[in-house]
Amino acid sequence: MMILELAFTASPERLAARPAHRSFLARLHEEGRLLAAGPWADDSGALLVFDVERTELGRILDADPYYRTPGVEVAGIREWAPVVGPMR
């Protein structure tokens, strides 16, 4: 499982790109590759939880131009091994 953390700035490009990005995320969720995603309450960034390997996450990031949009920064990518909860 992979965790992606994003950092945001108040860029108009980011806000314009967000609807297409969210549609892409909805498709990943329907396919079971994205378990959860959402912005921090203060909209300073977001957290996404993927049920994929690191190489597949790289392909996902390459396929969605949102991650290269001004105002969006990939702040971190970490492998996660949950031991409690419905995710494993």
From TrEMBL:
InterPro entries: Dimeric_a/b-barrel, YCII. It comes from the Bacteria. Residues 12-80 form the YCII-related domain. Belongs to the YciI family. This is YciI family protein. The lineage of its organism: Bacteria, Bacillati, Actinomycetota, Actinomycetes, Streptosporangiales.
